[in-house]
């Protein structure tokens, strides 16, 4: 699959690049996409929810009513889960929601996400660029030149460009990441994938090694 290379003014440079068919041309696998997105979202959870059990409440340990003969349920002290203000039974405890996925599964999920973007013609390739200083206005001008200012944009760079990252940080519909850090959720969450030309080789190295 060939795609035109644009400059940051939105103009064609006259050059084309060929997208790797083993990445952008595969048949997407929906199940591995589901697993990878599920893992990504699970890893975002803090897992700090906590309720007190009866042993963690402060209160008298005196048995309130006799064991038998009252006609009601058995209960012990005032911290009993049966009473208002008592402990909670099987309440949430701090935990890690993360789970393991094989590297090949995660790689296939990323390939599938990129393949979906290729099928939707939602990929733009631009020349490598950097800013002399952080300036949000410059980044907005690029999105306008590429005619994607009203869409959620994911810009993929070959390496960390701090000024580009800082320029996009305050924009709600724009995100910047390196090719080595690309993940399934971010790709699918974007309306348009803008890939710097040098990132294509980095993506190939990450997903085909």
UniProtKB/TrEMBL annotation:
Keywords: Ribonucleoprotein, Ribosomal protein, RNA-binding, rRNA-binding. Residues 46-85 are annotated as: Disordered. SUPFAM superfamilies: Ribosomal protein L4. GO terms for biological process: translation. Residues 50-59 have a biased composition (Basic and acidic residues). Belongs to the universal ribosomal protein uL4 family. One of its GO terms (cellular component) is ribonucleoprotein complex. The gene is rplD. This is Large ribosomal subunit protein uL4. It comes from the Bacteria. One of the primary rRNA binding proteins, this protein initially binds near the 5'-end of the 23S rRNA. It is important during the early stages of 50S assembly. It makes multiple contacts with different domains of the 23S rRNA in the assembled 50S subunit and ribosome. The lineage of its organism: Bacteria, Pseudomonadati, Bacteroidota, Bacteroidia, Bacteroidales. GO terms for molecular function: rRNA binding; structural constituent of ribosome. PANTHER family: 50S RIBOSOMAL PROTEIN L4, LARGE RIBOSOMAL SUBUNIT PROTEIN UL4M. Part of the 50S ribosomal subunit.
